[in-house]
Amino acid sequence: MRDDIIKVEKLDLFYSEFQALHNINLTIPENKITAFIGPSGCGKSTFLKTLNRMNDLVEGCSITGGVLYRGNDIYREEDVFTLRKNIGMVFQKPNPFPMSIFDNIAYGPRVHGIASKNVLHEIVEKCLRDVALWEEVKDRLHKPALSLSGGQQQRLCIGRVLAVESEVILFDEPTSALDPVSTSKIEDLLDKLKKKYTIIIVTHNMQQAARISDRTAFFLHGRIEEYDDTEKIFLNPENKTTEEYISGRFG
Amino acid sequence: MTREKFESQLKKLDNKLLKMAILVEESVNKAVYALKNQDPETAREVIRDDAKINDMEIDITEKCSIILATENPVAGDLRHVISIMKIITDLERAGDHSVHIAKNAIKLAGEAYIKPLIDLPEMSVKAADIIHTGIESFINRDPDAAYQAALKDREIDDMHLQVVRELIFIMLTDNKKIDQALSLMFTSRFIERLGDHAKNICEWAIYSVKGEKIDL
Q1: What is the pLDDT, as a whole number, of residue B1?
Q2: Predicted pLDDT at A222
Q3: How far apart are CA A179 and CA A182, in angstroms?
Q4: Interface residue A207 vs chain B (CB under 8 A)
């Protein structure tokens, strides 16, 4: 039987008067990749941000319903700091801190109280190995992270999330700014990471969703039109609108 | 309407499939005509024209490959292209069986038949009919018509068993007739296999719409 790490119940989200999400109900399986697809403005990124309360930062944003992470409603917990440690996020554009490669990875553990140089070095090496960056940067760990290529920067940002031992990683179009080779490296990396982490990815790239995800949710006008195994969605979806969208005939 | 180029590619592919199916139907009809009327010239025509069917299979496979590589079809479109690739294999094999029948027609052209040929032509008409309806229902996205057509293959199977029984009886009663009886038995078997390929076509027509591969 599949274990669900996140369960969303009757979620509505409003930006002041405007309702951006309508009655979202879904469960996210642990150690799987779940993809959110849909046209621009359909609510998929908004929904992604509700999963670690990034929308708290948006003025006028309010929600009703529940988002349960390991059975606890994240909107009833006050410790957002720990929540965002457990549910990390990687953004569309690589955003390394303007500091060294080493310090980018060590930043999170330091904030969480780890001071030992040896421990930090172990964490940095492990995380860089996990994101397949170690061999490429081991001789220049103290060089600026901004000197890395776009693809390397994105892998560094993923390593930064791993360093704080997140359980769930949210990806908001993580490869849209990358070339095909860097994209392929990130996709391979996600496939390896799912053994240890639960991954949720928003993507506009249909083939990417088909290639890497286990489950796919199709969003439209702030609602989930269809949520099923990725193979089912791309081979034989239940919903005609889903088929029109994934086959490029929508709109 | 979006993806107009893709839609037009799919339509062209359907038209090519239709042309290939017509060639195969003609091939089956001519092969059995040659057998029944002891007409070796028509039989040789069937053998010669089989190259056209083989070329069409290669051409359609190439067109499907290009669509898969460049258009990334999914869902119903993907099933449609997959089904075309499977159907043309069945059509090509059906063409090969026509050639086998034509070769037997040439072999038997100078002999008096040991029995009247009634069942074999009837079986081939049924097989050609299933191919025709299977392709038509594939193009019209009509799984119900494909299902009904596929069921008719059982009639061909039953007739084949009847023909085999009859020929075994002839062989047992007159050993001079064994050689021709065996040729007719193989011919019956080729037509029975034609029916199986026709049924497969219907199954792919159903799959392309419903997404389920059923074994009828």
Answers
A1: 53
A2: 97
A3: 5
A4: yes
Task: Compute the distance between CA of residue B104 and CA of residue B35 in angstroms, rounded to an integer.
Answer: 7
User: What is the spatial distance between Cα B95 and Cα B193, in angstroms, rounded to a whole number?
Assistant: 11
Q: What is the ipTM for the molecules in this complex? A: 0.76
pLDDT of A163 over the 80 cut: yes
Cross-strand partners of B97: none
CB contact under 8 A, B2 and A251: yes
Of B2, B73, B75, the CB nearest to A237: B75
Instruction: Report yes or no: A241 at the B interface, CB cutoff 8 Å.
Output: no
Print burial letters for A143-167: b (CB count within 10 Å at least 16), e (below 16): eebeebeebbbbbbbbbbbbbbbbb
Which residue of A236, A242, A251 is in closest CB contact with B211? A236
pLDDT > 90? residue A24: yes
Does the distance separating the beta carbons of A207 and B79 come in below 8 Å? Answer: no
User: Given CB atoms, is A234 within the 8 Å cutoff of chain B?
Assistant: yes
More confident residue, B134 or A248: B134
User: What pTM does this model have?
Assistant: 0.84
User: Which of B74, B77, B207 to probe by mutation at the A interface, max A CB count within 10 Å?
Assistant: B74
Distance (Å, whole) CA B73 – CA A34: 21
Query: Residue B111 above 60 pLDDT?
Result: yes
Cα–Cα distance measured from residue A30 to residue A228, given in angstroms and rounded to the nearest whole number: 15
Average pLDDT over residues B86-102: 98
CB contact under 8 A, A248 and B3: yes
- pLDDT score, position A251: 67
